[in-house]
User: What shape does this take?
Amino acid sequence: MNAVHLIGSLKFAPRFKAFDSGKSKTTAIIETPPAPGRQYGDKIDVTAWDEQGMILADLKQGDAVEIHGRVTTESWDDKETGKKVYKQVCVATTVASPSRTVREATATAAAAGKFAEAEIPF
Assistant: This one.
């Protein structure tokens, strides 16, 4: 079984790309917390397509994120050396973020006149 469950934060702002076919793709780098005894966490490339990609694209650098997906290997020819290059990537099937949920709840409540947009209710 090829299954991945990642919890971390966005190292950089996600990159969104729309294609003429109507499909869309978002790429990002997730940084996981460091394992015990390690100074740094791992950095994992993530690709999300269409609806899940839109969720990922809505996030900002530093936002917490939880990804469920699978690992795949991408390959291409390096333009400078002509050698084949390989990279493992997590293809997301589910993207979730408490940061996005808080922003959505704040925007919804602000639109309903419940409180000022900058005010956090908890």
